[in-house]
Amino acid sequence: MIFLATAALAQDFELDLTEEKPVTAPEFRPTLGVISVKAADAEEVSASRARQLEAELLKQLGQGDLFQTVTEPSAMRTQLGAEFAAVDACVDYACFEAAARKLKVNRLVRLTVQKHNVGSMVTMYGYDPGFNEVLVVSQESGEKAEKAFLGVAGKTQAQKDREFMKKLNGFLVQVQKTLSIPNGKIIVENDPSAVVMVDGVESGIGSMEVIAPRGNRTVKVTSPGYKPFEQSVTVQPTQAATVRVALVALPLEPVVVVKREKPEGGGFFTRPGLYLAVLGAAAVGVGIYFGQTAQAVKTRVEAGGDPVTVTRAEAKNAPTNALLANVLVGTGAAVFAGGVTWVILTPTPGGPPAAAPPKTNTGEPTETTPTPTGAMLNFGGTF
């Protein structure tokens, strides 16, 4: 505050106490957002001077080369919408930081004008992440009460306002210089697919250059299958700091395969040949039953007698039973033989694999397939 007041006083006497600084490269110039310049009370003089102060500040910003871009209050209202009122009342660092991220600017400033004694007090609220706190600086106009002397009129309000602007001109210059400290650069040498974050804000993927405010910054890099990489780096104004990313692969976790134990005896599909053999034997047994039934009817018919002991229903069913007997016995025998062959050629589950049959050059078969067996029952007669 003392420095600002001294500079302003020196300008009143047309003295230049500021040091000449080299021109900053455009890429390192910060971006600035002017939230507002408004009256902090209900005084008409305060409102009038706030309007004059805003016009002068925007004029100086437009003519200078301290900032890369400047967002004026009207544009700020449009971008923030319903949030503008809350941002226009910011007094703490977190509030300014959130607004700067939303607006994508590096610095923020707002000014208030209020009545102070017979003059005015101007207060600046500035946000610069390099300071890690809100900058609050005030400057009073230093006006004194006038005494009437022999009816001579004092200064008009317009004259007082001109003197006020002249008095505060140096203050505005110092506000700009305070907030225009150049940014630095972080060069990230990175894996092409890894995501880079600077101070918790995603900056892109792969290798890149990130413009960052001066001070200690945290670079974090993440990629699927690798441990997160994190490094703190100190950024200096107009200087580049290099971060070489070395990603370490995550250890592969062993895959545990749980082998389900088969119950003793297995199911149907563990030994299908056995069940086919049983099914074939059952079919043969049923066929023999039908055959015996038809044979019994035939025997009684051939025996003759008076009257014949064979009923019409039995005589009618006898050919059908004989046919079923032939089909079931023949088919059952074939199924039984196939099931037995399957059992012989299929190794027991869990046992050693069956040895391959020996090959010979004689062309003689090494295995014989059982010839399907069956029975044929011929039935005839006149009823």
Folded structure, characterized:
The chain is rod-shaped. The chain is built from eight helices and twelve strands. A hairpin with a 6-residue loop joins β10 (215-222) and β11. The strands form three sheets. The protein has a five-stranded mixed beta sheet with strand order 2-1-3-4-5. The chain has 383 residues and is of the alpha/beta class. It starts with a helix and ends in a 38-residue tail after the last helix. The chain folds into three domains: 2-146 and 153-179, Rossmann fold; 185-244, Sandwich (Immunoglobulin-like); 268-345. Helices cover 37% and strands 20% of the residues.
Topology summary:
Elements: H1 2-12, E1 32-39, H2 44-63, E2 70-71, H3 73-80, H4 84-87, H5 93-103, E3 107-116, E4 119-127, E5 135-140, H6 157-179, E6 184-189, E7 195-198, E8 201-205, E9 208-212, E10 215-222, E11 229-235, E12 240-244, H7 272-303, H8 312-345
Parallel strand pairs: 1-2, 1-3, 6-12
Antiparallel strand pairs: 3-4, 4-5, 6-9, 7-8, 7-10, 10-11
What gross morphology would you assign?
rod-shaped
The second-level CATH architecture of the largest domain is 3-Layer(aba) Sandwich
Number of separate domains: 3
Strand order of the largest sheet: 2-1-3-4-5
The percentage helix is 25-40%
Mean pLDDT, all residues: 81
Terminal residue distance:
136 Å
The residue ranges in which pLDDT falls below 50 over 5 or more consecutive positions are: 1-18, 360-369, 371-383
* Total E-strand runs: 12
